Structure formats: C-alpha cells, structure tokens
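chain below, 301 aa
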Amino acid sequence: MASFTMRGRLQAALVAGASALLSLVLPLVGLISSAAVALVTLRKGANEGLIVIALAAVFSALVTFAALGSAMPVVGFALLALWLPVWILGLLLRQSRSLDLTVQLAALLGLLILLGIHLQTADPAHYWAQLLETVREKLVQSGALDADTSKQLVAEVSRWMTGAFAATFYFQVLLALLLGRWWQALLYNPGGFGVEFRALRVQAAMGFLGLGLLALALLLRDTMWPTELLLLLAPLFFLQGVAVVHGLARTYSAGRGWLIGFYVLLALVMPHAEILVAGLGFLDVWANLRARAAARLKARG
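prediction:
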C-alpha cells in the first residue's frame, strides 16, 4: 500500500479517495485514507500533499455524484475529518522533526472540536441525549434495559460525550499520522519509526496540567469542563504508555509474542486496559521508566 501510494500523485489520490469512500461503510478504513495523505506530505512536502488531497476530492466527488447525485456531504467529510487535519500534522512533523511536539500539539485539534461544540449549542449534554434517544428506545424495546435505567444511563453518557468525541477525533488523526510515519520508515528508513516511537515522551507540563484538571474534576463534580479537558489529555498519556511498553520490551529483549499479547488485551479488555496504559504513561512523565530500566540493565552488566 505504501509503495503504491508513492508511485505518483494519481496512485496516492486513488488510495486516499477510495479508502475515504469505503470508510463510510467500514470506518477504520479511513485511517488508510488519512495515512496516504500523511505519507505524501511527510515525504514530499505541503504542496504535494495538497495536490493529492485535491485529486482525491475530485475522484470522491465524481463517484459519489454518480452514485448518490450529491457529492458535497461526502467530500466535506473527507476534507474536514480525514485529510486536512492529518495534512497539518504531517507538515508540522516534517518541519519540526519532533514526534513529541507533534503529538502534543495534536491535542489542539481536539480543543477546537470541543470549543466548536460548545459554541454551537448551549447544552451539549442535551444535544447528545437527543442523538442517543433512538438507541435508548431500541434497548428498551429489546428488553436489554428498563425505561428508568436507560434514561439514567443516557443522561450520564451524554455528559461525557463532548469530551470523548473531541478526544476520539484527534486520536484517530494521530493514529493515521503514525501509520503514515511507519509507512515512510518502511520505504526509506527501515527501523526508524520504532526508534522514534519508543522514545515518545510528553512534557512534564502536560502531567502537571493533568493533575490540576483531575483535582478540579473531583472538586467540581457538577461542572464538566475540567473532565472534558482531562479527556483531551488521555490520548497523549495512552500513546506514551504504549511507547513505554514497546521500550521496555526492547530493553529486555522480549519476544514479539509479548507485544501481540499486549495488543490483544487492549482489544479484549476495553476500556479498562486503555485506562491502565494511560495511567502507565502518566506515571512515566515523572518516573521515566524506560531510562530507569536501561540503567538498571546496564548496571547488572
């Protein structure tokens, strides 16, 4: 896929456009679309990335217009959700050559989404509750939940949805960027992505900000903005936690089976495993577990 993407503009646009259309049915395929844009931007620069985006938009518009009679909703979704955000991060990573900085600044995308939702509606929880009402009714009709329990559940979930949605959006963009960076390393610098990712660390300021927001969230239980901002930091600590696991596995020469088991647990024990890994990343902000493990191993001889 990476090799085909880098053969030329048309090939890259085909990958980006076709996978964007498939993401309407299989959402995770959208990562491939964004990663193709990231790969071109990282390797060839901002202009080439924009050209590929433009060609992919034309391709997507022609297909969706022929199939649905309207192209703007699909193309608008692809531009705003799949292509432009990862193009911005790809350009930032290309210029700064700092994965740490790029990952942390990506949280600003989530902050923009968060602010946009609050500017659009005075009561975001009510907005989400309306969207979830159809799901609630189906659960009640199927007998999975009774009416009172379902109302309480929807009310509680709705309070968390704004922060969770913003965090999920920019985390997906980050995953696409990392996929594009991995493709770039496979083609032009084998092994380089592993070294870069295993060294990923957020600044201590993010840790102190997380502590402050956690304290505010516990003190102001009826106010959601500290919790929403804390949710925005969660992907940063989660990625650092994953980097810690990879770093320790490398330090102790653990087999690939250990990492496969780790990702299987992440998939099977959701969301508890993710919370634990984010906690590990949060701890590593101060403990620097990878450096300690390397020093301990070196001291043993």
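The chain has a mean pLDDT of 91. DSSP finds 14 helices and no strands in the chain.
thats it, cya
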